[in-house]
């Protein structure tokens, strides 16, 4: 597994798409999995929608289940997985490594909050995502900061940091 944490709007998905195109890995976005579950209209999707609107983290159990389902579905067609936006909490990463696979690389996308807010508000113009509004963005950033430092520290030997100042914006 290769993990791609970074703040909301840091370009994780864009960079993963480029790596997939070049190397043939399977890109799994935890955010996309969660949004698809919300769009399904299921009871779980309705509960997730409320959590996401509040800018909070979805439970590790739910995220792990969605990831496992997706990974199993892609198992016969992949050279490996790029998981963007994961782990969001240190416990998620530890649980993933115990139950599924060790993490080989963490590519951390670093950016200032001002940069992330600008990128997300720009994305909101075309994305239609309900969580791309200023109030929810600030909550998401606070949640991200509270959880990210322990992850980067725990995986420091496997982490490469990329400043998004050097990456093109989509």
From TrEMBL:
GO terms for biological process: nucleobase-containing compound metabolic process. The keyword Transferase applies. Keywords: Kinase, Nucleotide-binding, Transferase. GO terms for molecular function: ATP binding; nucleobase-containing compound kinase activity. Pfam families: ADK (PF00406). InterPro entries: Adenylat/UMP-CMP_kin, Adenylat_kinase_CS, P-loop_NTPase. Belongs to the adenylate kinase family. This is Adenylate kinase.
């Amino acid at each position: 597994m290769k993990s791609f944490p970074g703040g909301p709007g840091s370009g994780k998905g864009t960079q993963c798409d480029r790596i997939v195109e070049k190397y043939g890995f399977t890109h799994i976005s935890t955010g996309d999995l969660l949004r698809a579950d919300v769009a399904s209209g299921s009871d779980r999707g309705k509960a997730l929608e409320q959590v996401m609107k509040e800018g909070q983290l979805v439970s590790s159990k739910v995220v792990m289940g969605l990831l496992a389902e997706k990974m199993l579905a892609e198992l016969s067609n992949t050279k490996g997985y790029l998981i963007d936006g994961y782990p969001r909490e240190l416990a998620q990463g530890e649980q993933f490594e115990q139950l599924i696979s060790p993490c080989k690389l963490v590519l951390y996308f670093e950016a200032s909050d001002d940069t992330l807010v600008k990128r997300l508000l720009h994305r909101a113009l075309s994305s239609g995502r309900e969580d791309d509004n200023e109030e929810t963005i600030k909550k998401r950033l606070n949640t991200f900061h509270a959880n990210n430092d322990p992850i980067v520290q725990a995986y420091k030997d496997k982490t490469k940091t990329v400043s998004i100042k050097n990456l093109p914006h989509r």
